[in-house]
Structure formats: C-alpha cells, structure tokens
C-alpha cells in the first residue's frame, strides 16, 4: 500500500483542519476541545496523520505542526487509546513501546534524584546521589540505540508507504531530546559548573525539561506513529525490520523478548548460511571489467568492505543506492535506507546544507565538501565528492567517513622494512 490509500469523510476532514487552525490561531483551548471530541470520535490515528500531512502540503510549516503536537494530543488523547499490546512480544513496535515505559521511568527518577541534591550542602556530601544520577545517565546514553532504530529503519519503511511528514516531526523531537540529554551529560560528567547551588538548579531544570519533553514525544509515537505503522507495514516487512533492529542492537533495558528474538534470528541465519555455503561456492559472481583491470563481484565487494573508511553513494536522483559494510562502521547504516532520499536521512535542521552541497555538485559549482569534528575519542573526517562521468555528467555523490584520530598522532617515519610480525 504505497502511497497510503484511505478514505476520509471530506466534511469531517474539513472540520478537523479548521479546528487545528483555530488552535494555531490561539483560540480558547477548552472550547475547541469540546468540538474536537465530536469530530474525532470515529477517526483513527492514520486518518489524523493524513489530515496533518495535508495541512503541511497546503503550506503550513512543519515546525508549526511540531509546536502544536502537544496541544493536539491534549485535545484528542481520549480518542487515541494507549495500548501496550498493540503488537505481540518480540515485535519491533512492542519493543519500542516498552522501551518508552522504561525511559519515562528513568526521566522521572532522574528528576526526583536530582531534587535530592538539595538535601546536602556541597559536592563532597553528594557522592551517593551523584553516583545514582550517573547510573541513570548511563541508561540515557544506552537509549541512543532506540532512536537509531527508529530513524534508520522504521522511518524509511513508513516513507515507502507515503507516511513522510510524521517521521520528520518525530526526528525533530529526537534532536531536541538529544540536546536536553547533552546538557545533562555535560553538567553531570563535565562538571562545568563549580558552584553547587547553580549546578543543582541547572540540573534540576534540565532533568524536568527532559522528563516532560520525552513523555510528550512518546505519547505522540504511541498514539499516532505506531498505530499508523501497524496499519501500513506488511508482515513480511516487519520480519525484515526485526532483523535490521537486531543488527543495530538493543538497550540494557530493552524487553527480554527483543533480545531473545534477536538470538533466535541470529541462530537461524547461521544455520541457513552453513546450508548455503556449498551453493554459493558454485555461483558465478560475475566479472567487472575496468580500464585498469578486472575483478569478480564477490572480491570487489570484499575490497570495498575492507577499506579503512566508510563509503556511501547517493545517485543522481538523490537516493541512497549503496554503502560499504565495514566492520568498524562509524555511523549506522541499514538496508532500509536503500532507495531513501538523502534528505530524509538527515535531521530537518541540516537538510538545507545537504541540498546546497548536492545542488552545487549537480550544477558543477563544487566538486568536494569536507567537515571534521570530535565524537568521543574519535576524530571524524567526512568528505563528499561529486561523481561525474568522463563527459562531465553528474552521476551522484560519494560520502567518505573516516576516524583520523590515530592518523593525526603519526610522527616520524615507518618504512616497509620497519614492519614487525
């Protein structure tokens, strides 16, 4: 089913749009709420999602929809049932929803524990409390896998079925959550604030903001995004999604069913691989002829995967068509992104830069763009190259990502004869 094909009563749809616009214009929330109850009584999450998408198509800024999402949920939360049994145990949606429950618990616990800091006078007396806060912070760091699974797997599958705007809005939420978490991490681990009272005040404020914001975000996903996904994504696709979820991995607080499912799938795939090894050995993998030599496809793939950096190719239509499968990959890549527009592979805040680079490449204004930044103990160097035919035709963009931390430390000489076994 792509794009989404559902029928909505046009009169009801018109009323919903008018009411959302009234909210946007600042009319009385309670009065609009009462009208919404009557209009939305028979509408499901997918229909509401489509109405919001049409509003955006008609010119409403996605950021305005984003800013109103909390109000929307407050208005029709009674109409959208929260059902933790929306999907069976082991299903990707079941895993995500139960991770939401744990993250909400961590958010509330962080805020409450932070308030305990007021019971002591200074850092030397807060050791046990700060230790408890660090444990919660570690869980929030683990939570990155939760968001990566959504952004790199679930969102691309929704886009394939015509659900494009909700994932963009959810990704904006993810980035805001990351900003709030970063502020907390810097306060707790960086200790950039030496004054204890100021430290407690800022941490308490940031913790409350994170707890409230992520709770609102999870409600949007549970009541709108996930029910929509369950309606449009097929059973066969959910099987593929499960495998790709397993590739990214789970959090220390993920439900046991997810981990058990991952182990079962891994065992099954290992058995299947053993069974097919003899068959693969007899397959003709094909030969690729270059001006400078020839190589069979199987060896070529191994060569690309052995390169000491990651490469991703975006074709001339701005769609991801290939990525190398390095064992030391720097950024998450999944099969779900193949065919996805490169714009949808980036958060909303950076899309204008992506478009500028690609347009300059396409128009021949630039041939290269490069960026570098620190990521933990890594020093990431990213280069984008315009790929052109010998006739100068733009064929696409090649992304090359590499950790150059060790390279930057190289000094002196080390020649071939200096190599030791």
UniProtKB/TrEMBL annotation:
The protein's organism comes out as Candidatus Heimdallarchaeum endolithica
Residue ranges of domain Hemerythrin-like in the record: 91-229
Membrane-spanning ranges: none
Report the domain of life of the source organism: Archaea
Instruction: Please give the Pfam families that the UniProt record associates with this protein.
Output: DUF438 (PF04282), Hemerythrin (PF01814), PAS_10 (PF13596)
Q: Which Gene3D superfamilies match?
A: nmb1532 protein domain like, PAS domain
Q: What is this protein called?
A: DUF438 domain-containing protein
- Residue ranges of every copy of the DUF438 domain listed in the record: 17-81
Which SUPFAM superfamilies does the annotation name?
A: PYP-like sensor domain (PAS domain) (SSF55785)
Spell out the GO cellular component terms annotated for this protein, sorted alphabetically and separated by semicolons: plasma membrane
Family annotation (InterPro entries): DUF438, Hemerythrin-like, PAS-like_dom_sf
């Amino acid at each position: 089913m792509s794009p989404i094909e559902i029928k909505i009563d046009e009169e009801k749809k018109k009323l919903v749009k008018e009411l959302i616009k009234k909210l946007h214009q600042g009319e009385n929330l309670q009065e609009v709420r009462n009208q919404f109850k009557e209009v939305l009584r028979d509408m499901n999450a997918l229909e509401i999602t489509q109405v919001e998408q049409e509003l955006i198509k008609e010119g409403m800024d996605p950021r305005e929809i984003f800013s109103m999402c909390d109000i929307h949920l407050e208005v029709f939360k009674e109409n959208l049932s929260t059902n933790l049994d929306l999907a069976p145990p082991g299903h990707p949606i079941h895993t995500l929803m139960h991770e939401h429950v744990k993250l909400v618990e961590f958010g509330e616990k962080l805020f409450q524990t932070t308030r305990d800091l007021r019971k002591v006078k200074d850092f030397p007396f807060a050791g046990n409390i700060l230790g408890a806060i660090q444990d919660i912070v570690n869980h929030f760091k683990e939570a990155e896998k939760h968001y990566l699974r959504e952004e790199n797997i679930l969102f691309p599958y929704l886009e394939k079925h015509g659900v494009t705007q909700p994932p963009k809005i959810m990704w904006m939420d993810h980035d805001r959550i990351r900003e709030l978490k970063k502020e907390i991490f810097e306060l707790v681990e960086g200790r950039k604030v030496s004054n204890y009272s100021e430290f407690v005040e800022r941490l308490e404020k940031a913790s409350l903001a994170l707890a409230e914001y992520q709770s609102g975000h999870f409600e949007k996903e549970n009541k709108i995004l996930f029910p929509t996904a369950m309606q449009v994504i097929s059973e066969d696709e959910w099987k593929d999604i499960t495998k790709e979820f397993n590739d990214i991995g789970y959090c220390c607080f993920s439900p046991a069913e997810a981990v058990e499912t991952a182990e079962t799938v891994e065992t099954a795939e290992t058995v299947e691989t053993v069974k097919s090894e003899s068959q693969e050995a007899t397959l003709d993998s094909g030969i690729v002829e270059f001006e400078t030599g020839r190589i069979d496809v199987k060896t070529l793939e191994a060569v690309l995967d052995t390169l000491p950096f990651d490469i991703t190719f975006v074709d001339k239509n701005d769609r991801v068509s290939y990525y190398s499968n390095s064992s030391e990959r720097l950024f998450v890549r999944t099969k779900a992104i193949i065919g996805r527009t490169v714009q949808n592979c980036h958060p909303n805040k950076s899309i204008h830069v992506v478009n500028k680079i690609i347009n300059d490449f396409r128009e021949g204004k630039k041939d290269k763009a490069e960026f570098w930044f620190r990521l933990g103990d890594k020093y990431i160097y990213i280069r984008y190259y315009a790929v052109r035919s010998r006739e100068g035709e733009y064929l696409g963009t090649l992304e090359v990502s590499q950790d150059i931390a060790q390279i930057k430390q190289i000094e002196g000489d080390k020649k071939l004869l200096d190599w030791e076994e």
